[in-house]
Amino acid sequence: MMATLSDTTVVLPTLNEADNIRKVVGSLLGRYSKIHIIVADDGSADGTVQAVKRISLKNRNVRLLDRRNRPVHGLAASIMDAALLVRTPNMVVMDADMQHPVGKVGELAEKLSEAELVIGVRTRVRNWGFWRRLVSKTISFTAYAVFKIRGKPTSNDMMSGFFAIKTGLLRDIVRKDRKGFVERGYKVLLDILKMAGSRTTIAEVNYSTFHDRTVGKSKLAPRHMLYTLASIFG
Ligand SMILES: Nc1nc2c(ncn2[C@@H]2O[C@H](COP(=O)(O)OP(=O)(O)OP(=O)(O)O)[C@@H](O)[C@H]2O)c(=O)[nH]1
Ligand SMILES: [Mg+2]
Protein backbone atom coordinates (compact mmCIF):
# COMPACT_ATOMS: atom_id res chain seq x y z
CA MET A 1 0.00 0.00 0.00
CA MET A 2 1.18 3.49 -0.79
CA ALA A 3 2.02 5.69 2.17
CA THR A 4 -0.36 8.59 2.74
CA LEU A 5 2.23 10.41 4.88
CA SER A 6 -0.32 12.13 7.11
CA ASP A 7 2.49 12.62 9.66
CA THR A 8 4.80 14.43 7.24
CA THR A 9 5.16 18.00 6.00
CA VAL A 10 7.18 18.79 2.91
CA VAL A 11 8.83 22.20 2.97
CA LEU A 12 9.34 23.70 -0.47
CA PRO A 13 11.41 26.90 -0.56
CA THR A 14 10.55 28.97 -3.62
CA LEU A 15 11.79 31.99 -5.47
CA ASN A 16 10.09 32.44 -8.83
CA GLU A 17 9.10 28.84 -9.47
CA ALA A 18 5.78 29.46 -11.25
CA ASP A 19 6.74 26.97 -13.94
CA ASN A 20 7.37 24.23 -11.39
CA ILE A 21 5.28 24.77 -8.29
CA ARG A 22 1.97 23.37 -9.53
CA LYS A 23 3.72 20.32 -10.86
CA VAL A 24 5.68 19.51 -7.71
CA VAL A 25 2.74 20.14 -5.35
CA GLY A 26 0.38 18.16 -7.60
CA SER A 27 2.84 15.34 -7.85
CA LEU A 28 3.30 15.18 -4.05
CA LEU A 29 -0.45 15.23 -3.37
CA GLY A 30 -1.08 12.67 -6.10
CA ARG A 31 1.35 10.23 -4.59
CA TYR A 32 0.87 10.85 -0.86
CA SER A 33 -2.77 11.74 -0.33
CA LYS A 34 -2.53 13.11 3.24
CA ILE A 35 0.84 14.81 3.08
CA HIS A 36 1.19 18.41 4.33
CA ILE A 37 3.03 21.02 2.31
CA ILE A 38 4.42 24.42 3.27
CA VAL A 39 5.67 26.58 0.42
CA ALA A 40 8.16 29.07 1.87
CA ASP A 41 8.26 31.88 -0.65
CA ASP A 42 10.75 34.71 -0.56
CA GLY A 43 9.01 37.29 -2.67
CA SER A 44 8.37 35.65 -6.03
CA ALA A 45 7.03 38.05 -8.64
CA ASP A 46 6.07 35.51 -11.27
CA GLY A 47 2.77 34.13 -9.99
CA THR A 48 4.20 31.45 -7.70
CA VAL A 49 2.40 32.93 -4.69
CA GLN A 50 -0.94 33.17 -6.51
CA ALA A 51 -0.63 29.58 -7.67
CA VAL A 52 0.00 28.36 -4.12
CA LYS A 53 -2.88 30.43 -2.74
CA ARG A 54 -5.20 28.87 -5.30
CA ILE A 55 -4.13 25.35 -4.38
CA SER A 56 -4.40 26.03 -0.64
CA LEU A 57 -8.01 27.18 -1.03
CA LYS A 58 -8.86 23.69 -2.26
CA ASN A 59 -6.54 21.70 -0.04
CA ARG A 60 -6.08 22.77 3.55
CA ASN A 61 -2.94 20.66 3.88
CA VAL A 62 -1.14 23.11 1.59
CA ARG A 63 0.01 26.34 3.21
CA LEU A 64 1.92 29.39 2.05
CA LEU A 65 4.60 31.03 4.16
CA ASP A 66 4.88 34.45 2.58
CA ARG A 67 8.31 35.83 3.47
CA ARG A 68 8.12 38.76 1.03
CA ASN A 69 8.44 41.38 3.75
CA ARG A 70 11.02 39.65 5.93
CA PRO A 71 14.25 41.58 6.49
CA VAL A 72 16.44 38.63 5.53
CA HIS A 73 15.72 36.51 2.49
CA GLY A 74 17.42 33.21 1.89
CA LEU A 75 16.98 29.53 1.38
CA ALA A 76 18.17 28.56 4.86
CA ALA A 77 16.12 31.30 6.55
CA SER A 78 13.02 30.10 4.70
CA ILE A 79 13.48 26.51 5.81
CA MET A 80 14.07 27.59 9.40
CA ASP A 81 10.91 29.73 9.47
CA ALA A 82 8.89 26.96 7.85
CA ALA A 83 10.13 24.45 10.44
CA LEU A 84 8.56 26.58 13.17
CA LEU A 85 5.17 26.27 11.44
CA VAL A 86 5.22 22.51 10.85
CA ARG A 87 2.51 20.68 12.80
CA THR A 88 3.51 17.09 11.98
CA PRO A 89 6.27 15.11 13.73
CA ASN A 90 8.17 14.51 10.49
CA MET A 91 9.30 16.91 7.81
CA VAL A 92 11.05 16.70 4.45
CA VAL A 93 12.97 19.49 2.77
CA MET A 94 13.17 19.48 -1.02
CA ASP A 95 13.65 21.91 -3.91
CA ALA A 96 10.57 23.08 -5.77
CA ASP A 97 12.15 22.77 -9.21
CA MET A 98 11.56 19.03 -9.74
CA GLN A 99 15.24 18.17 -9.31
CA HIS A 100 14.53 15.97 -6.32
CA PRO A 101 12.50 12.80 -6.89
CA VAL A 102 8.98 13.01 -5.46
CA GLY A 103 8.93 9.21 -5.49
CA LYS A 104 11.65 9.09 -2.80
CA VAL A 105 9.86 11.34 -0.31
CA GLY A 106 8.00 8.37 1.17
CA GLU A 107 11.17 6.40 1.72
CA LEU A 108 12.92 9.35 3.37
CA ALA A 109 9.98 10.06 5.66
CA GLU A 110 9.47 6.42 6.61
CA LYS A 111 13.11 6.02 7.57
CA LEU A 112 12.55 8.60 10.29
CA SER A 113 11.33 5.66 12.35
CA GLU A 114 14.98 4.50 12.44
CA ALA A 115 16.88 7.79 12.52
CA GLU A 116 16.33 11.47 13.37
CA LEU A 117 17.81 12.72 10.11
CA VAL A 118 17.55 10.92 6.76
CA ILE A 119 19.64 12.32 3.93
CA GLY A 120 18.92 11.84 0.22
CA VAL A 121 22.25 10.94 -1.38
CA ARG A 122 22.84 11.57 -5.07
CA THR A 123 24.69 8.59 -6.46
CA ARG A 124 24.81 10.08 -9.91
CA VAL A 125 24.39 13.62 -11.19
CA ARG A 126 23.30 13.90 -14.79
CA ASN A 127 24.34 16.57 -17.24
CA TRP A 128 26.50 18.72 -15.00
CA GLY A 129 29.51 20.06 -16.89
CA PHE A 130 33.11 19.31 -15.96
CA TRP A 131 33.62 22.46 -13.87
CA ARG A 132 30.43 22.24 -11.87
CA ARG A 133 31.24 18.61 -11.14
CA LEU A 134 34.83 19.43 -10.09
CA VAL A 135 33.86 22.37 -7.88
CA SER A 136 31.08 20.36 -6.29
CA LYS A 137 33.33 17.37 -5.60
CA THR A 138 36.07 19.56 -4.11
CA ILE A 139 33.69 21.41 -1.81
CA SER A 140 31.95 18.20 -0.74
CA PHE A 141 35.25 16.58 0.11
CA THR A 142 36.38 19.66 2.04
CA ALA A 143 33.14 19.76 4.01
CA TYR A 144 33.41 16.05 4.79
CA ALA A 145 37.01 16.38 5.97
CA VAL A 146 36.38 19.49 8.09
CA PHE A 147 33.36 17.92 9.79
CA LYS A 148 35.23 14.67 10.46
CA ILE A 149 38.14 16.53 12.01
CA ARG A 150 35.76 18.51 14.20
CA GLY A 151 33.92 15.39 15.31
CA LYS A 152 30.68 16.47 13.63
CA PRO A 153 28.25 14.11 11.91
CA THR A 154 28.94 13.55 8.20
CA SER A 155 27.12 12.22 5.16
CA ASN A 156 27.96 10.76 1.77
CA ASP A 157 26.24 13.82 0.31
CA MET A 158 27.13 16.74 2.54
CA MET A 159 25.65 19.16 0.00
CA SER A 160 22.27 17.49 -0.28
CA GLY A 161 19.21 19.73 -0.34
CA PHE A 162 16.89 16.73 -0.02
CA PHE A 163 16.45 15.32 3.46
CA ALA A 164 13.93 14.31 6.11
CA ILE A 165 14.24 15.35 9.72
CA LYS A 166 12.32 14.98 12.95
CA THR A 167 10.50 18.30 13.25
CA GLY A 168 11.35 18.56 16.94
CA LEU A 169 15.07 18.20 16.24
CA LEU A 170 15.19 20.98 13.65
CA ARG A 171 12.93 23.20 15.73
CA ASP A 172 15.18 22.80 18.78
CA ILE A 173 18.25 23.71 16.74
CA VAL A 174 16.53 26.73 15.19
CA ARG A 175 15.30 27.99 18.57
CA LYS A 176 18.64 27.48 20.29
CA ASP A 177 21.13 28.34 17.58
CA ARG A 178 19.44 30.58 15.03
CA LYS A 179 22.66 32.57 14.66
CA GLY A 180 24.54 29.40 13.78
CA PHE A 181 22.70 29.18 10.45
CA VAL A 182 23.95 30.99 7.38
CA GLU A 183 20.51 32.40 6.69
CA ARG A 184 21.15 33.45 3.11
CA GLY A 185 23.00 30.23 2.36
CA TYR A 186 21.89 27.24 0.32
CA LYS A 187 23.40 24.48 2.43
CA VAL A 188 21.12 24.26 5.39
CA LEU A 189 22.05 20.59 5.81
CA LEU A 190 25.62 21.62 6.65
CA ASP A 191 24.34 23.98 9.33
CA ILE A 192 22.12 21.25 10.74
CA LEU A 193 24.92 18.66 10.80
CA LYS A 194 27.13 21.19 12.55
CA MET A 195 24.63 21.97 15.28
CA ALA A 196 22.97 18.59 15.74
CA GLY A 197 24.58 16.74 18.60
CA SER A 198 27.16 14.07 17.81
CA ARG A 199 24.68 11.47 19.03
CA THR A 200 22.11 12.39 16.37
CA THR A 201 21.13 9.28 14.43
CA ILE A 202 21.49 9.58 10.68
CA ALA A 203 20.33 7.36 7.83
CA GLU A 204 20.68 7.77 4.08
CA VAL A 205 18.60 7.00 1.02
CA ASN A 206 20.39 6.76 -2.32
CA TYR A 207 18.91 8.01 -5.55
CA SER A 208 20.27 8.28 -9.05
CA THR A 209 17.80 10.57 -10.76
CA PHE A 210 19.20 14.00 -9.90
CA HIS A 211 19.34 16.06 -13.07
CA ASP A 212 19.59 19.68 -14.12
CA ARG A 213 16.47 21.76 -13.76
CA THR A 214 14.43 21.74 -16.96
CA VAL A 215 12.26 24.82 -16.41
CA GLY A 216 12.63 28.05 -14.49
CA LYS A 217 15.86 29.83 -13.71
CA SER A 218 18.59 28.80 -11.32
CA LYS A 219 18.99 31.20 -8.40
CA LEU A 220 22.47 29.98 -7.69
CA ALA A 221 24.92 32.91 -7.74
CA PRO A 222 28.66 33.22 -6.96
CA ARG A 223 27.89 34.63 -3.50
CA HIS A 224 26.29 31.32 -2.55
CA MET A 225 29.74 29.77 -2.76
CA LEU A 226 30.88 32.12 0.00
CA TYR A 227 27.85 31.23 2.10
CA THR A 228 28.69 27.55 1.65
CA LEU A 229 32.27 28.15 2.80
CA ALA A 230 30.86 30.01 5.81
CA SER A 231 28.71 26.95 6.60
CA ILE A 232 31.70 24.65 6.32
CA PHE A 233 34.29 26.65 8.25
CA GLY A 234 32.12 28.85 10.47
N1 LIG B 1 12.60 30.86 -0.16
C1 LIG B 1 13.66 30.89 -0.97
N2 LIG B 1 13.83 29.91 -1.87
C2 LIG B 1 14.91 29.98 -2.68
C3 LIG B 1 15.87 31.02 -2.63
N3 LIG B 1 16.82 30.78 -3.56
C4 LIG B 1 16.45 29.64 -4.18
N4 LIG B 1 15.30 29.16 -3.66
C5 LIG B 1 14.60 27.91 -4.00
O1 LIG B 1 15.42 26.87 -3.53
C6 LIG B 1 15.44 25.78 -4.43
C7 LIG B 1 16.86 25.55 -4.95
O2 LIG B 1 17.29 26.68 -5.71
P1 LIG B 1 17.98 26.50 -7.15
O3 LIG B 1 18.09 27.83 -7.80
O4 LIG B 1 17.26 25.45 -7.89
O5 LIG B 1 19.43 26.03 -6.75
P2 LIG B 1 20.21 24.76 -7.25
O6 LIG B 1 19.28 23.59 -7.34
O7 LIG B 1 21.41 24.63 -6.41
O8 LIG B 1 20.65 25.21 -8.71
P3 LIG B 1 20.23 24.58 -10.13
O9 LIG B 1 20.90 23.24 -10.23
O10 LIG B 1 20.74 25.54 -11.12
O11 LIG B 1 18.73 24.47 -10.15
C8 LIG B 1 14.42 26.13 -5.51
O12 LIG B 1 13.17 25.60 -5.14
C9 LIG B 1 14.40 27.65 -5.46
O13 LIG B 1 13.18 28.21 -5.91
C10 LIG B 1 15.66 32.06 -1.64
O14 LIG B 1 16.44 32.99 -1.51
N5 LIG B 1 14.56 31.93 -0.85
MG1 LIG C 1 17.63 23.60 -8.54
Question: What does this entry look like structurally?
Answer:
39% of the residues lie in helices and 16% in strands. With 234 residues, it is of the alpha/beta class. The protein starts with 7 loop residues before the first strand and ends with a helix. The mean pLDDT is 96. It has one domain (8-233): Alpha-Beta Complex (Spore Coat Polysaccharide Biosynthesis Protein SpsA, Chain A), CATH 3.90.550.10. β1, α1 (18-31) and β2 form a beta-alpha-beta unit. The radius of gyration is 17 Å and the shape is globular. It contains eight helices and seven strands. α1 packs parallel to α2 (48-58). Strands 3-2-1-4-6-5-7 form a seven-stranded mixed sheet, sandwiched between helices. Residues 13-15, 17, 40-42, 73-75, 78, 95-97, 99, 186, 212-213, 218-220 line the site of guanosine-5'-triphosphate.
Topology:
Elements: E1 8-14, H1 18-31, E2 36-41, H2 48-58, E3 62-66, H3 75-83, E4 90-93, H4 105-110, E5 117-122, H5 130-149, E6 163-166, H6 167-177, H7 188-195, E7 202-207, H8 222-233
Parallel strand pairs: 1-2, 1-4, 2-3, 5-7
Antiparallel strand pairs: 4-6, 5-6
The structure holds guanosine-5'-triphosphate (GTP) and magnesium ion.
Defining key terms:
234 residues; alpha/beta; Spore Coat Polysaccharide Biosynthesis Protein SpsA, Chain A; 7-stranded mixed β-sheet; 8 helices; 39% helix; 16% strand; binds guanosine-5'-triphosphate; binds magnesium ion
Chemical compounds bound to the protein: guanosine-5'-triphosphate, magnesium ion
- Helices and strands: which structural class? alpha/beta
Question: How large a portion of the residues is in β-strands, by DSSP E?
Answer: 15-25%
Top-tier CATH class: Alpha Beta
**Extended strand count:** 7
What's the main sheet like?
7 strands, mixed
Number of helices: 8
Order of strands in the sheet with the most strands? 3-2-1-4-6-5-7
